[in-house]
Design goal:
Largest sheet: 9 strands, mixed
Strand order of the largest sheet: 1-2-3-5-4-6-7-8-9
Structural class: alpha/beta
Distance between the termini: 78 Å
Number of helices: 19
Helix content: 40-55%
Radius of gyration: 29 Å
Strand content: 5-15%
Number of strands: 9
Shape: elongated
Length: about 600
């Protein structure tokens, strides 16, 4: 036996007893399924697992069956055993199969690659080059699957998609020849060998390309430095500055920056430590009014703190930074608890976010190198808009020493049950669903994976939690989220304990300071109708709401550089610092 033979050639022998028309149908089906995996590898997790299980089982059975005819029997048995174990795991333990794919697929590909190369080097046929190239590609794919489990699904889709297409083509070609009662002429056989060689070379190129991408992504990953480790003795009082250092990454000319570490508290009142950034103009008279910035979603992993990321201010969608500094104001931007510092991160958990915002302002006032006034306006976008609204709700009771002149909530996550219910309709919404679930799972014992996540989605959700939106690895999350053929949730997240917790964290309380709510009319994540209903309810509750909408702007476009909101936001904030009367523009009911 030539142990470098491909899957198609080995299985072709077993199909000789199948009627030609049956073999032809099988060939067409395999080509179609393989092409789906290659062209749309993330279309369906179920299809991917079924194809992998079938291909792994077929490879294992044929490898074991033919091992008895090989002088290197133990190698054939080892490869066959690995593929059979993988097939059994996928079928029998779907909840664990994704987590184990990196180990089983990686090991099987490496061993099979070695087997292919050693078998080819001992023969003199013109299939030798294809077998060597395919073997090297298999080894690279296998090492990649083991070293970078986050792309295991991509590797599996490509490898098994290609295997399935080649097997289908071989089966269909053999069926056509059988129907005609002819055998393949020498010219056709040579052409087929050249096709196999070219295909093997392309596989190797793809494997090397993925390996280079893996290396580049890992070099760009942020890492938590010693600055974020709290000292051995931490004050019990919230809002205490623990540490500061100069910060200049993406700081505009004419401004000076600091990174700060400070004490705060979690949603349930337990002490915690958070980090953040403070910016101020280099020159100018008097104490500086403060814009407290609550950033939008960057992720929930510790490495997703804006102060750690390559572009700290664009990562959380901060608008009008130059305008803030030109106006002579200071910016105090919290990372929130759990981003940079020890988690968990209170993602869309109102009081936990708001305490991080307020305590950052308290800590920034303790810097010796900048003079900050008591005047504070809170800005926030998306997740940060949710945090800003909650900051307005709790400021008087939690931090009366931080009087607020206004709250600007830009496309805020104001109705959490509506937001989470809408995520299934948004491309990539499963990633945000994983962030919401992670935040609530880590804060509330009654929100569990067993109670709300589909078994097959649990490993993917864990992977998405580990990636930041501003880093290259997020493209793996986006791609894998598009392959999910069902929602990640096994039951509606707005029911039961999860739903109760979402409603508890929806900002429905009284905000004594003026509130600006800005909403893009083409926003697909935070729906305009939902935002309008929230604004109506906030007005009915007695809040002073200035509600503004922006035609043609979506969720991020509303804070984009060309958005009319930016100039309006700066003017509205200046009015709050000057103590001018705040406009009230509550939406009228249709």
């Amino acid at each position: 036996m030539d142990e470098g033979d491909g899957l198609g050639r080995r299985l072709g022998r077993g199909l000789e007893r199948v009627p030609w028309w049956g073999a032809a149908m099988l060939g067409v089906l395999c080509v179609a399924v393989g092409l789906v995996l290659l062209v749309r590898p993330f279309r369906s997790l179920t299809v991917l697992l079924i194809v992998v299980a079938i291909a792994a089982g077929a490879t294992g059975v044929t490898a074991v069956a033919e091992a008895g005819r090989s002088p290197r029997r133990w190698m054939g048995l080892a490869v066959g055993g690995l593929w059979l174990v993988l097939a059994v795991v996928i079928v029998a333990v779907p909840a664990l199969s994704l987590g184990l794919l990196s180990v089983f697929v990686g090991a099987a590909l490496v061993v099979e690659g070695i087997l292919s190369i050693t078998g080819a080097l001992r023969e003199r046929s013109d299939a030798r080059a294809a077998a060597v190239l395919q073997g090297v590609a298999g080894i690279v794919f296998g090492v990649l699957a083991l070293a970078w489990p986050n792309v295991t699904l991509l590797v599996v889709a490509v490898v098994f998609g290609a295997k399935t297409v080649l097997f289908g083509c071989s089966t269909l070609s053999a069926a056509v020849r059988r129907a005609r009662g002819t055998s393949a002429p020498e010219r056709s056989r040579k052409r087929a060998r050249w096709v196999r060689t070219v295909g093997a070379a392309l596989s190797l190129l793809l494997a090397v390309a993925l390996a280079l991408v893996s290396a580049a992504v890992h070099r760009g990953e942020p890492s938590v430095t010693a600055f974020y480790t709290p000292p051995s003795s931490v004050p019990d009082r919230s809002g205490q500055l623990l540490r500061s250092e100069a910060f200049d990454r993406d700081v505009p000319a004419g401004a000076v920056g600091w990174r700060i570490l400070y004490t705060t508290s979690r949603d349930d009142g337990r002490p915690a430590v958070a980090s953040g950034i403070v910016l101020a103009p280099r020159s100018g008279p008097g104490a500086r009014p403060v814009v407290a910035w609550a950033h939008g979603t960057t992720g929930v992993d510790t490495t997703c703190a804006p102060s750690l990321l390559k572009h700290p201010f664009t990562a959380g969608a901060l608008p009008a930074l130059d305008g803030v500094l030109e106006a002579g104001w200071a910016l105090v931007a919290t990372d929130y608890v759990g981003l940079g510092t020890e988690g968990p991160h209170p993602y869309l958990i109102g009081r936990g976010e708001a305490r991080s915002v307020l305590d950052a302002v308290r800590a920034a006032r303790q810097l010796d190198t900048v003079d900050l006034s008591d005047e504070t306006v809170v800005w926030g976008h998306s997740q940060g808009g949710h945090a800003a609204l909650w900051t307005g709700q709790i400021a008087d009771s939690y931090a009366p020493d931080v009087p607020l002149a206004g709250v600007a909530a830009l496309a805020p996550a104001s109705d959490l049950t509506a937001l989470v219910s809408n995520l299934d309709t948004v491309p990539g919404g499963a990633i945000f669903a994983s962030y919401v679930f992670a935040g609530y799972r880590d804060h509330y014992p009654d929100v569990t994976a067993a109670g709300y996540l589909r078994p097959a989605a649990r490993v993917l959700v864990r992977e998405w939690e580990d990636r930041c939106l501003a880093e290259p690895e997020v493209f793996v999350s986006i791609a894998s989220s598009l392959m999910i053929d069902k929602p990640v949730f096994s039951r509606s997240p707005v029911t039961g304990a999860f739903g109760t917790r979402l409603r508890e964290n929806t900002p429905r309380g009284r905000i004594p300071t003026p509130v600006l709510i800005a909403q893009g009319e083409t926003d697909q994540l935070v729906l305009p109708a939902v935002q309008r209903a929230y604004a109506e309810a906030a007005c009915a509750a007695g809040n002073r709401v200035d509600y503004r909408t922006y035609p043609g702007l979506d969720h991020t476009g509303v804070v984009g550089n060309d958005s009319p909101l930016l100039a309006q936001l700066l003017a509205w904030t200046a009015d709050r610092f000057q103590g001018r009367p705040a406009p009230t523009t509550c939406p009228s009911r249709p």
